[in-house]
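To whoever picks this up:

The parser on our side crashed when reading a file containing two proteins. I've narrowed it down to the boundary between the first structure block and the second sequence. Both blocks are reproduced below exactly, byte for byte. First block:
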Amino acid sequence: MPSVARFVGHVESVEDLSDLLSDSRFTAIPKWVLGGGSNIVLLNDFPGLVLLNQIRGIDVREQGDEVWITVGAGECWHDLVRFTARSNWSGLENLSLIPGSVGAAPVQNIGAYGVELADVFQHLDAVHLGSGEKRIFSREQCQFSYRDSFFKQTKGEFFIVSVTLKLSKKYQPKIDYHGIQAALEQRAWVNPSVLQMSDLISEIRAIKLPDPIHVPNAGSFFKNPVVPETELPRLRADHPDIVSFPQANHKVKIAAGWLIEQCGWKGKRVGQVGTYAKQALVLVNYGVRNGQEIIEFAEQIKTDVKSTFGIELEIEPQLIGSTEGLARQY
């Protein structure tokens, strides 16, 4: 769907960012940092400055079996994963084929197949858009949680410059997540290499999830809800096949895709919006001209899930152009 920003700034260095922030034309208007744009929904035009994060570069420091890698926030995430897998450094392989930029990864605390960015994250460098102050954020300061972080909660306040991760030369594959074990057995892989695991994850994702270049979508549209484990008996009483995963602190993660599918929404289409036939979590844009149509479709799904299971689904992508979002930006 077409959306227009009032201004767009290409940022290839901290100096570029400083020049834009000191420009009097942009001082008092909203700002939004954009990476690959794969996890956003555009609701209308943006009346401010969009900062395209195009800071590149990869710096590697090896220390024994540890590999410290500092990556420019504008680098492509999947390209980074493939670079580390080919180097036989483990830690990112289960996060293969996730679209978007490196700088967006900590905002979302991206995760897949039993691994989250927080597992390998060390620190990041950022610039405060209001003051121009440079800051270093530790893992604790990023306040990572399930598909959330300090940066997602403080929309528009910081521009992430680089991200530092700690990987390992000692490979301990994480293969106990649903679907991986079966795929390994099918290929008769007993001790897959880091690169083989990256290939495997990429194949699994390609089968289940549509390529946004060919099928417009924003990835998983809903978070998997996390509920107290005391809720599980109630849910299983009426829905014995419910898909769940134990979490820390006496919590249970429920598969949102399963909930949506049980409500009859998998593969369903209303007008120019629908759910993907192979994965109910993904909403597909078949030609929508207004982002609000996608939100209205999502709200219908949320209402059905709430009515059927008593569980509130939460939208995962960031909404750009809403009144609420603009109020929290610089």
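<<boundary where parser fails>>
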Amino acid sequence: MKLKLHWQILAAIILAAIAGALTGTDAAVLGVTFLQVYDFIGTLFMNALRMIIVPLIMSSIIVGISTLGGGNDLGRLGGKTIVYYAFSSTAAILVGLFFVNLFAPGISNGQPVGEALNLTLDSAEATSAVASVEGRGGGDVVQIFLRMVPTNIVQAAAEGQMLGLIFFSLVFGFFMTKIPSRQSEALGNLWGGVFETMMRITVWVMKFAPYGVFGLVAETVASTGFTAFRPLLLFFFTVLLALAAHMFIVLPLVLKYGAGVNPTSHFRAMAPAMLMAFSSASSSGTLPLTMECVEKNAGVSNRTTSFVLPLGATINMDGTALYECVAAIFLAQAYGLEMTFATQFTVVLIALLTSIGVAGIPAASLVAITVILTAIELPVEAIGLLLVTDRILDMCRTSVNIFSDSCGAVIIGRSEGETSILADKNVSDLA
């Protein structure tokens, strides 16, 4: 019987814990230690993830932005959509930033948990990482914006300077809509094909996730034992609390006071789509059901729904942006690096931008986290640890993504004068 991916990953974690505990660091066959085998498997999987970063993020952003199209009505609708998505994603990231600083899952008894998690930096990496995050002030934020405009886009892609690459993709996607339709359609087909291909490659790579998880977890357990699971458990609950705060406090307040809609009624209207999102961990896969719930249950017109929701499934990832922020700062804490205001601002900005480029498929956010780690000069191999809890958190954050998209459709529909939307009897009609 073929198991679903999340069950395969869960089985891989259990088997890895057993294998790592039994073999330790010294057990070997034909002169090759099991630890080396675990390292090979984990590294191979991480290399495959890195391979897809540039084309996946570029194609996703360009396709998402180019779908805004032209025309006064479409431009107005697009402007409202972008403003809402930027606001909701930023709010989600700030919620995550608050909780990860409050609970500090990467620190235990005043000490970084890096050793317990088998996270170490050699002297050169440590010097580079410390130099990148320490001793900075608010003035260094200016340098972030300078790095957004690369002098050589090919070099930026080759060197992993993703902030500049994301900015270029945003600009490219926007101006694709300003050229003659014949050329614009050809470019749209090209980048649409690249995006669809990269999504298929990402799905294919993720089929090997159980093997990658096995190698990464087994290596950690073989090297450190089971001490690694305590900080990971705290990280897990930190993310859950942050997601819950955004979904059950921030977004309902936005619904109530931004559109005059009863949050409880909207939760009921969106329940089928949210359950589908939770079980599939795919925003794109849930899109048809999301559109049906928003139209039939929440009363938003097809005109608004057909524009806002497909765009949201591509560029609005509240839960993902929140998770990226918490994960990056957790790993920085684990390495013992002090996160100054400038560095945390960098994480917030890149989490916002990379969440635009995250495909709506399971575990795609792991690709975006590598961008943040590269920006603050931490080894991307560290995200291997996140795979231990990623599937469950992926299911949760996908539900948040879907709910945020539906809130955006309701708010924008109300601003367009639609009266069929479920209204809160205690709030005056805002249309």
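After patching the parser it read the second block fine. Residues 123-141, 424-431 have pLDDT under 50 and may be disordered. The first strand starts at residue 28 and ends at 29.
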